[in-house]
């Protein structure tokens, strides 16, 4: 997530990163505050390799389209580290909101 802060870098008071957003030609650089995540793509690999919920990574989108919404299921990915704003190298991942209504299409990263 990036939040445009304009042409002046703004240091975060809440653990976010101050980063360069963009620079076009001779115009001043535009800065952002960034909420950084580490390994979102690893969630797709985990579903494929560890849970066998999909055969190949490209199967994610068609699977997600089998449901109207996430069914109230949320997944916090922290396989090796939780980045901004918490910066925890020991944080575990968590899945919440699972009910009997949930199916493969509602499983993590399907929304």
What does this molecule look like?
This protein has 111 residues and is α+β, with helices and mostly antiparallel strands. The chain has helices spanning 40-49, 60-64, and strands at 2-6, 17-22, 30-34, 74-76, 94-96. It has a three-stranded antiparallel β-sheet, with no helix packed on it. The two termini are 17 Å apart.
Total strands: 5
Q: Sheet with the most strands? A: 3 strands, antiparallel
Structural class: alpha+beta
Termini, distance in Å? 17 Å
Flag low-confidence runs: none
Biggest sheet: strands side by side, in what order? 1-3-2
Q: Tell me the β content.
A: 15-25%
Which word captures the global form?
elongated
How helical, in percent, are the residues? Answer: 10-25%
SSE order and pairing:
Layout: E1 2-6, E2 17-22, E3 30-34, H1 40-49, H2 60-64, E4 74-76, E5 94-96
Antiparallel strand pairs: 1-3, 2-3, 4-5
List keywords for this structure.
111 residues; alpha+beta; three-stranded antiparallel β-sheet; two-stranded antiparallel ribbon; 14% helix
